[in-house]
Design brief:
seven-stranded mixed beta sheet, 7 strands, single chain, globular, alpha/beta, 7 helices, 17% strand, disordered C terminus, 218 residues
Length: 218
């Protein structure tokens, strides 16, 4: 019984993607974050799973979460919250973040369909040193708590924690988190047909920071 969980914040101005301000307003940064989350939820909905969870920090889940179970995030640091998620699910769990809207069915497919007997965990590095995906056959929050999050070595430290527990880990493709405007440009170019690229193009033109992406695709 596979569970896929997306960890996300409610996309309220001033709470999400604040490193995009400036050049974008806080409202525009929140629009970009909402588009990123929407694309991610669409992908998760498209892959086979027994349960789909939105692990949510907020009061108003997005419309794209229709059909997802909503699990409210607990209080505490990110490692403590992720630990709570992994202690709340029985059976194989794959968790992905909301900051990689270029994620595709092909990228997550190995961790959805290839839980062979010689695989205990799946792990996907983000190019900033963190991670975008973490899966465990037997979820354990103790394998996450205490790992310093949002650091340059977070991904390495989390992977080491899994390996030190003698888990047999398979790696997913490394992809880029959207943190900066340069990240957003790169991701919009990688996935030009998603809502993220459309919203980023629109707000970028409004802010005067780029030429029309949609025109260049034509």
């Amino acid at each position: 019984m596979l569970t896929i969980a997306v960890i996300a914040k409610e996309c309220i101005p001033g709470r999400v993607k604040t490193r995009l301000h400036p050049p974008f307003s806080l409202e525009e940064a929140a629009e970009i974050a909402a588009a990123s989350l929407g694309d991610t939820l669409d992908v998760v909905r498209s892959v086979p799973a027994d349960r789909r969870i939105l692990f949510f920090d907020g009061s108003n889940p997005p419309a794209e979460a229709d059909g997802f179970e909503i699990l409210q995030q607990n209080e505490g640091t990110l490692d403590e919250r992720l630990g709570y998620l992994f202690d709340s699910v029985d059976g194989p769990l794959l968790m992905i973040g909301m900051d990689t809207p270029q994620v595709s069915r092909a990228l997550v497919e190995p961790a959805v369909s290839r839980w062979h007997d010689d695989i205990d965990a799946w792990f996907g590095f983000a190019s900033d040193g963190g991670f975008w995906a973490l899966g465990m056959r037997e979820p354990s929050g103790d394998l996450i708590r205490g790992v310093a999050m949002s650091e340059a070595e977070t991904g390495r430290d989390q992977l080491e924690r899994l390996l030190e527990a003698d888990l047999r880990v398979k790696l997913l493709a490394e992809i880029n988190d959207v943190d900066s405007i340069d990240d957003a440009r790169e991701v919009a170019a990688i996935a030009p047909d998603g809502r993220f690229a459309e919203v980023f193009d629109r707000v970028s033109l409004r802010a005067g920071v780029r030429e029309p992406l949609l025109d260049r695709r034509a």
